[in-house]
Amino acid sequence: DANMEKGEMRVEANISISDTEEFGTKVEVKNLNSFKSVGDAIAFELKRHEEVLARGEKVVQETRGWDENAGKTFSQRKKESANDYRYFPEPDLPKLMVKEVFGANCEKLPALPELPLKKRERLKKEFGFSDTIVEMYVSDSTLGGFFEAVVSELKGEKELVKFASNYISSDLAALAKSENGGALGKVTPKNFAELVQMLKTGEVSSRGAKDTLAVLFTDGGEARAIAESRGLMQKSDTGALAEIVKEVIAQNEKVAGEYKAGKEASLQFLIGQGMKASKGSANPQVLGELFRKALQ
Predict the structure, then answer these.
(1) How far apart are CA 25 and CA 14, in angstroms?
(2) Cβ–Cβ < 8 Å for 172, 213
(3) CB atoms closer than 10 angstroms to residue 14
(4) What is the mean pLDDT of residues 184-213?
(5) 3-state SS, residue 211
(6) Is the pLDDT of residue 181 over 60?
(7) Torsion angle, CA of 250/254/260/266, rounded to 10 degrees?
(8) Which of these, 220, 230, 127, 214, lies nearest to 170 by C-alpha position?
(9) What are phi and psi of 63, to 5 degrees?
(10) What are the φ/ψ torsions at residue 186 (nearest 5 degrees)?
């Protein structure tokens, strides 16, 4: 967002010409403060270089300024080599002799970690995440590292990974914000992956998964054991749920009649009553199928 015309950004143009593959002598034009100045200064220097060489003279390596009013560059100081920049060794940074330190294995030094740009590209390509989610995993190393570990636990299965990401970027991120430094509590990639698999198979509902995650965060443990001990497992036993379906229909004969008459929304009401009767433990998909069969 820097505005060159307001002096918030400057350009230093380096110009050289050559009729061979090797670069010609470089001239640097400093402190150009507008795109127009950049273009005009480069055009002037190209013409000046051509004229110097046409006369059989050599271009001098130097730093030049730009005179906006005159429309030409002017010499500021000559630079013959790097020595003119007054480079000197940093006394607190001794030379590192790589081969002496690492021996013959210096070629096998660890490579750089995945850089942010590459990570953004990979997350979008592999999982189709939005820019917001990608940026969360790139900018927050704790959350991003946790996500990568969960992907490994889930063997990279795309559908499970998306389930996992939904809960990491929302519920787990919210729990982390409640901790100083954004720590992830006692949740581990392994027990989190177990919870995601239970959610996918319908063993716990979305509400049950959130409640189980909250316990994992504060107390740790195994997702299945927590869900079972706290009554958060979804009931999919058609025998037990069939009794609930009968009771709900008997208590809501008018609504049941409306569903039979073609009012599809009435089914959602009946399922809601079934969930209420089961104290939220019933599998809503199974309840729906049982209501449809009972009201055929």
Answers:
(1) 10
(2) yes
(3) 11
(4) 92
(5) helix
(6) no
(7) -100
(8) 214
(9) -105, 135
(10) -105, 15
The rounded percent of the chain whose pLDDT value lies above 90 is 51
In this structure, are residues 214 and 191 in contact, taking their beta carbons and an 8 Å threshold?
no
Q: Quote the distance between the C-alpha of residue 176 and its chain's center.
A: 17
204 pairs with which residues across the strands?
Answer: 233
Compare 147 and 201 and report the one with higher pLDDT.
147
The residue-averaged pLDDT of 240-268 equals: 88
37-96 tens-digit pLDDT: 999 999 999 999 999 999 999 999 999 999 999 999 999 988 656 666 676 778 888 887
Residues 6+ apart with CB under 8 A from 143: 136, 137, 168, 169, 172, 173, 176, 182, 184
| Element holding 286 (H helix, E strand) | helix 284-294
CB–CB of 197/161 below 8 Å?
no
Distance between CA atoms of residues 270 and 5, nearest Å? 67
**Which tokens sit at 257?**
């009649």
Burial class of residue 196 (count of CB atoms within 10 Å of its CB; 0-12, 13-18, 19+)? buried
Query: Who's near 26: CB < 8 A, 6+ residues apart?
Result: 14, 15, 16, 61
Average pLDDT of the chain is 87
How far apart (Å, rounded) are the C-alpha atoms in residues 13 and 36? Answer: 13
Name residue 66's beta-bridge partners: 73
Question: How does 136-160 read in b/e, with b if 16+ C-beta sit within 10 Å?
Answer: bbbebeebbebbeebbebbeeeeeb
Rounded CA gap, 94 and 215, in Å?
A: 52
Q: What is the DSSP letter of 214?
A: H
